[in-house]
Amino acid sequence: TPTFFDADNDGVGDFEGIRQKLDYFRKIGATTIWARHVVQADKDEFDPSLVVDSFNVDKRLGTEDDFKKLVNAVHDKDLYFVMDLPLTVSKVHSYTTSSNLAKKSNESGSGNLYVINLGELAVSDNLLKTAKKYLDLGVDGFYFSEYKA
């Protein structure tokens, strides 16, 4: 999303930019819009895996109302809307203060990446609440990045 069309000319692609290009997506035969960066990420980076707040959209991309307008416009064009819902957080996320809620990733090059612990009730409950919120906003599906079975 941040690297796509920038409707407000602030240097960052945004929800409105995607909305303005929906006819193009229909023209090329797309059936689904997959937004790879939606939730609030670390303010210093646009790495969508460095989540600081998965419950809220990243304000650099627009407001929650802008997001809802985009999802509604996608549906008006008979398209589906899927978004990333990362299972990772940044070092500044509240989960990293408890060793049970998130663990530092052992993967090479992962830097400040922490993987959330879905075995913890507080984490899985929050993920379900977050998913329900976005479903209520009209999202059709999720891609759970960084999932390892």
Structure description:
It is a single chain. The chain has 149 residues and is of the alpha/beta class. It contains 4 helices and 8 strands. The chain has helices at 15-20, 22-27, 64-76, 121-136; strands at 32-35, 39-41, 51-57, 80-84, 88-89, 102-104, 114-116, 141-143. It is globular, with a radius of gyration of 16 Å. The mean pLDDT is 84. This is Glycosyl hydrolase family 13 catalytic domain-containing protein. It holds the Pfam family Alpha-amylase.
H and E string = HHEEEHEEEEHE
Averaged pLDDT, please?
84
Which structural class should the secondary elements be placed in? Answer: alpha/beta
CATH topology: TIM Barrel
Radius of gyration: 16 Å
> What is the 3D shape?
globular
**Percent of residues in beta strands:** 15-25%
Low-confidence stretches: none
What is the number of independent domains? 1
- Distance between the ends: 27 Å
CATH class descriptor: Alpha Beta
CATH architectural arrangement: Alpha-Beta Barrel
Number of strands: 8
CATH homologous superfamily classification: Glycosidases
Helix amount: 25-40%
Total number of helices = 4
Question: Main β-sheet: number of strands, strand sense, barrel status?
Answer: 3 strands, parallel
Strands in their spatial order, largest beta sheet: 1-4-8
